[in-house]
Amino acid sequence: MFRNLLLFRFSPAIATDLDRLPEVLDEHRLRACGPLEAATRGFVPPVGRNQDDPLTRCLQGRTFFTVGEETKLLPSGVINDELHRKVQKIAEEEGRKVSGRERKRIKEDLLNELLPRAFVRQSRMSAYVDKKNGWLVLDTSSRKSAENALSQVREALGSFPAAPLAPEEGPRVLMTDWLATGNLPAGLALGDECELRDPATATGAIAKCRRQDLDAEEVAEHLRNGKQVFQLGLVFEDRMSFVLGEDLVVRKLKFLDVVLDALDGGETDAIGEFDATHTLLAGEVDNLLSHLATIFAIPRPSDGVVDESPAEPRKAA
Predict the structure, then answer these.
(1) Quick check: is 303 in a domain?
(2) Is position 134 within any domain?
(3) Residues 91 and 179 in one domain
(4) Axis-axis angle for helices 171-181, 217-224 (nearest 10)
């Protein structure tokens, strides 16, 4: 099950090109880090453990895939300590000061020496494209990680002009009004978490509430003092709970019992379990995204040229 939803949108014309994903991803499988490589990125099977398993799984017009990454763990503190030791040794044995250029060369030599012996951390990010509705959905709350994954898809396809969300209604303004008045759109109810900030300055006061009655007077007092909602816990149709950010990233997604009870657990293999789980997940997420697109007036790009450079979503003033 996805824990986060970071979203991009693409036009109907682009959707047809996504039929090539099963073919093109195969040329961009994740490979192990070389001795002097700090990281590698590529695609891994979304279901199954064999390296040669398919890299996509298509379910009801949605194509699921997984972006994998291998990263060498080489803490900067280890490098700096070793660099300091070598510089000090040169100063003591040769009686001279090490120049900045020489320090840089020594540091590069250290990296080449330590990288082959570094531990490797593996990470996976699940994702899918909904060709009918024009959504790219990634299971991450990190904009940087999402852009890296999107770059991998673009590299595989040659081009994939998916755009960050550009809501016409300011999420921060709307969510602040919901919390202040208690008047939420149909289907949404307040959860038990929020983050309030003073938007006047970048270093303004921040109030975070967890496991809190959001109707409480102390929360209302923060709003009266000028704070606005940057993250708000919500419940959608008693089927899922999540925290919605002013960047429209869905965090801490959790499906509630009424949804989980629909999984009968009768599948006997990994593929059957994956299909059942992700078909259910995508159907529930589809309802949520349709709702959010209406509330915040999130347009789907038209069939034209879309800027493929990384960009931040539009924010309220």
Answers:
(1) no
(2) yes
(3) no
(4) 130
